[in-house]
Inverse folding.
């Protein structure tokens, strides 16, 4: 996940896929001094499971997304993929577009993250027919 | 007792019913709903960058066309046109992220108002100086100050580092 987004910014002209950080240092979602620290993979898996619930309801989708956006990280594309599919199950296109907007906002000054995420999600976006905010023209005020 | 109770009931019927407002009551009287009175006991919509999915959609009272669009949303989204997708977005959300983050030019108005009132205050102070304040005391007139300065030099006021140290007593002039 993009917690070490600073490393991405040093990548310069290199392609996004190559400059993706491949660190293995475990980082916790909660900073306990005791207890086992959750790895990035565990964090991702937990959230993918959350959004992949077949009968997820609208409240759970909203709660999950608002919580996820509250964390100090940009969610991995696979988590977002699960979230977008949850939107599909709930027949909520607007929320799917909103999720993409929120991801772009979370990336903040690291402008290379959002295009990477969209690139990774492109198959899902085409399959489900989800437009990006840019395609709808709402990325400019 | 009975009469006071009747009085209270009368007051309740007359006053309290008008005071206790609800959106439906306001709407019945022709007020625009949900603008003047916000019902805080139900989930509210909000535009927040940190809350991408608010508790309720922005527009809840759908027209028949909007209802049919919502039905179409249950089918494959690839069948929706760009305008329909945009309409669905605008049903759920008032402001896009870009619109939320857009600044305004209000600061220019604030600064302009600040300078305007500062200048106006300056005019008032100037008028006051001319028309309200009386003459300055005679001890500030040039003649008096001249004699006063000479006296201070004669008295050797602050001769080490201060006033008189700046006077050259031999040449009888300022250093």
């Amino acid at each position: 996940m993009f917690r070490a987004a600073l490393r991405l910014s040093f990548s310069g002209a290199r392609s996004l896929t190559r400059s993706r950080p491949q660190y293995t240092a475990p980082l916790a979602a909660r900073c306990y001094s005791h207890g086992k620290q959750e790895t990035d993979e565990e964090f991702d898996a937990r959230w993918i499971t959350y959004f992949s619930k077949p009968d997820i309801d609208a409240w759970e989708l909203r709660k999950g997304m608002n919580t996820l956006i509250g964390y100090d990280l940009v969610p991995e594309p696979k988590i977002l993929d699960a979230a977008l599919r949850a939107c599909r199950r709930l027949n909520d296109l607007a929320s799917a577009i909103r999720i993409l907007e929120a991801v772009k906002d979370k990336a903040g000054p690291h402008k290379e993250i959002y295009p990477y995420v969209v690139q990774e999600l492109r198959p899902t976006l085409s399959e489900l027919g989800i437009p990006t905010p840019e395609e709808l023209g709402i990325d400019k005020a | 007792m009975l009469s006071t109770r009747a009085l209270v009931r009368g007051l309740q019927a007359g006053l309290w019913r008008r005071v206790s407002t609800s959106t439906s009551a306001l709407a019945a009287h022709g007020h625009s709903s949900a603008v003047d009175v916000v019902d805080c006991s139900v989930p509210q919509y909000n535009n927040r960058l940190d809350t991408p999915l608010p508790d309720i959609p922005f527009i809840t009272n759908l027209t028949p066309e909007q209802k049919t669009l919502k039905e179409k949303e249950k089918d494959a989204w690839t069948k929706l046109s760009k305008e329909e997708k945009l309409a669905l977005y605008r049903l759920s959300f008032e402001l896009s992220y870009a619109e939320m983050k857009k600044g305004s030019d209000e600061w220019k108005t604030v600064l302009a108002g600040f300078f305007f009132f500062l200048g106006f205050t300056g005019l008032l102070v100037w008028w006051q100086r001319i028309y309200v304040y009386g003459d300055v005391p005679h001890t500030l007139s040039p003649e008096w100050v001249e004699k006063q300065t000479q006296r201070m030099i004669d008295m050797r006021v602050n001769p080490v580092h201060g006033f008189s140290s700046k006077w050259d007593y031999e040449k009888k002039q300022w250093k």
Summary: The radius of gyration of chain A is 15 Å. Residues 113-128 of chain A form the longest helix (16 residues). The interface with chain B takes residues 61-62, 65-66, 69-70, 88, 91-95, 97-99, 101-102, 104-105, 128-131, 133, 135-141 of chain A (CB under 8 Å). Chain A has eight helices and no strands.
